[in-house]
Amino acid sequence: MKELEKLLEQVTADLMMTDHEDLPGMARLHDLFENIIRTIDDDANNISRVVQNCADLVEKIVLNEVSDRSVSFMAVTDAIIGLQKVVRGENSFVDIVFSEEVAIIADVAPIMSPNGGTASFGEFIEAGGRGEVAEPVESKEVNNAPVGEYIIDPSAGDASLLADFINEAREHCATAEQCLMDLETGSDNNNAINAVFRAFHTIKGAAGFLDLKPILELAHESETLLDLGRKGTVTIEGEVADAAFDAVDALRKLFDGLEQALTTGQPFDGSEVMFHTLDNVKRMVANPDDVKPVSPDQRVGDILVSRKTITQEQIDRALANRAQPDEKLGETLVKQGLVEPKKIARALRDQKSARKETSGKAIKEMVKIDTERLDRLVDTIGELVIAESMVGHDNEILSIASSKVSRNIAHLNKITRELQEMGMAMRLVPVKPTFQKLARAVRDLTKKSGKDVDLIMSGEDTEVDRSIIEQIGDPLMHMIRNSVDHGIESTEQRIAADKSATGKVWLRAFHKGGNVHFEIEDDGMGLDKDLILTKAREKGLIDGNRELTDKEIFALIFHPGFSTAKRITDISGRGVGMDVVKKNLESMRGHLDIESVSGQGTKFTMKLPLTLAIIDGMLVSVEAEKYIIPTLSIVESLVLTPKLVSTVTGRDEMVNLRGDLIPLVRINQLFGLPSETTNDGDNNTVVVVEDSERMIGLVVNELLGQQQTVIKSLGVVFQGQKWISGGAILSDGTIGLIIDVGGVVNLAHSLRDELYTHHEQVNDINEIEESRKDPDMAKLKMETLALEKPVSISEQGIPL
Amino acid sequence: MGNATETMAATAEAEVVSTADRTGKYLTFRLAAEEYGLEILKVREIIGMMDITQVPRTPHYIRGVINLRGRVIPVVDLRAKFEMDVTEDTNETCIIVVEVASGDGEVSMGIRVDAVSEVLDIKEDQIEDTPTFGSGIDTRFILGIGKIKEDVKILLDIDQVLTEGDLALAANLSGE
Question: Considering just the CA atoms, what is the radius of gyration of chain B in Å?
Answer without folding.
Answer: 18
